[in-house]
Each structure stands twice: as C-alpha cells, then as structure tokens.
Amino acid sequence: MIEFIILLAVGYFVGSVLEKKHYKDIKKRERKTIHVPIISFGAKQAIPEANEAALFAGSVVVSADYFKMFASSLRNLVGGNVVVYESILDRGRREAILRMKEQAIAWGATQVVNVRLETASIGNQASGGKGLFAVEVIAYGTGIR
Amino acid sequence: MTSRSSRQASSGNSGIIITTLEGVPGKEIIEHYGLVQGSTIRAKHVGKDIMAGLKNLVGGELKGYTELLQEARKEAVERMIEQANFVGANAVVNVRFATSSVAQGAAELFAYGTAVKVQ
Question: What is the C-alpha separation between B76 and B87, in angstroms, rounded?
C-alpha cells in the first residue's frame, strides 16, 4: 500500500513537472517554426509551384505516468473523457509535427503539404495487458522548395 | 538527434523522389508502375523494455522506442524504394505509413506508395 502511494506520488509530481517542461519546449519550438505552414491538402488541389519535393517524417513514442494510468483506470468505471490521456496525445502529436517541420526546415522547405497524422498504440494495454501505456504518433508530409 | 538519420532515409536514397502528393511538383508523370510497399516487423529487446517500464513511471517520451520505430520505418521505406528501383521507377508518390501492433512486444511498420516515372 505504502509502495503504491509512493509510486503514485512520484508519478504525479515528476510526471507533471516533465509535462510542463515539455509543453514549454513545444511552445517555444512552435513559435520558432511558425513561418513554415503545414497543410493537410495537396493531393487534388494545386499547390504553390515548387522545384523539389521530399518526404519528411517525424515520430515520437509517448507514455503515461503511473498516476495517469491509475486515474484512467478510475475513469474507466464511470466513463467519460479521459482528460489525463488527452494531454499525452496532444503532446505527442505536436512533438511529431515539430520534428517533421524541423527536418523540413533544415532541408530548406518553404511549406510542408499533404501532411498526414497517424497514431498507433504500441503498449501492451492495447492487447489487454495491464502494464505499459505507450502511443506512437507519426506526422509525415511532403516538403517543397 | 535521431531525426537526422531518418531524414536521410526518407529523402536522399538513390535519387528516387518520395512524396505524399499525387504527383511530383514541377514534373509530369509519364508512366505508372502500380503499388510498391515495404514493411518490417520489429520486436523491442528486453533491455529497452525494462528501461521503458521504468520510464513509464513518470511518463513522457520513451526515447528507446522512438528510435527503434524510426529505424524500423527507415527500413520499411528502404524496402519500398528497392521495389521501386526494381520496377524501374524514379519516384514514389502518394506514400502512406501505417503502424500496427501485431503481437505483444512487436510492431509492424508499413510504407506504401505508387511507383511512377516522372520527366
């Protein structure tokens, strides 16, 4: 019981500190890369003329902390929004987009078009296990210049 | 960072242009060769699994897994490019990725697209 409470407390405090740090980092990098628009169309509509195109992909695997896992199992009893997991996926998605964008910017892209986002659960919670909650988020698109 | 290596995988290989668009900007498609695909199934090794289990306590990014999957995706793309080379294409358009967890501890990374020849 004591162990459990310690794990919860560590998960909660360290987890939320790390999350705040990550969000700060994400916001900083988002501001820095805002000059390159990302667009989710491009297949059927004309895109600005470009000479070169290349594929860029950014991916990240994010996981929940112990407290969040516990909170979600409680939430499971009554149903509804699992708010604690929403922030994890939000972080993952923004991080993946940023990684894609940063690669594209390093290459000299003026735009990233036809961006697709993909999410896959790779933890063993997906297959019925009780342990790891881990989600992979990929963002990929075509950089043009 | 690992992003650099995955970038090379996605863009610079043997001159084949890979895009998620339906064509290559500034160029015209002159021939279609049909679907090409590459896939790989990776299992995580025990060391990484234990590290990830510890990291799972506090949440956040699991770098070991991120790298593993990036490597695997690189390989899937390479296999797709190999196929495209084989049919004589010089570009792969409309590329899509998919990841699925096929068994406990193993994930399939999948990349597919349409091989074409552009001018």
Answer: 17
- CATH code of the domain containing B48: 3.30.110.70
In this predicted structure, what is the pLDDT of residue A124? 64
CA-CA distance, B57 to B91, in Å (whole number)? 44
- Tens-digit pLDDT profile for residues B19-42: 888 888 888 889 999 999 999 998
Range of the domain at B102: 3-118
Fold designation for A2-144: Translation Initiation Factor IF3 (3.30.110)
Chain A residue whose CA is closest to B7: A56
Q: How many domains does chain B have?
A: 1
Answer whether B25 sits within 8 Å of A52, measured CB to CB.
yes
What is the tens place of the pLDDT at every residue in A2-28? 888 888 888 888 888 989 999 999 999
Q: What is the DSSP string of A30-64?
A: HHHTTTS-B-S--SSS-----S-EEEEEEEEEEEE
Q: How many CB pairs under 8 A join A and B?
A: 163
B53 CB near a chain A CB, below 8 Å?
yes
The reply to whether residue B99 touches residue A122, judged by beta carbons under 8 angstroms, is yes
- Verify whether the Cβ–Cβ distance B24 to A49 is below 8 Å: no
Taking 60 as the threshold, does the pLDDT of residue B8 lie above it? no
ipTM: 0.77
CA distance B30 to chain A (A): 17
Whether A54 contacts A114, CB under 8 Å: no
Contact residues on chain A for B81, CB-CB shorter than 8 A: none
The SS3 assignment for B115 reads strand
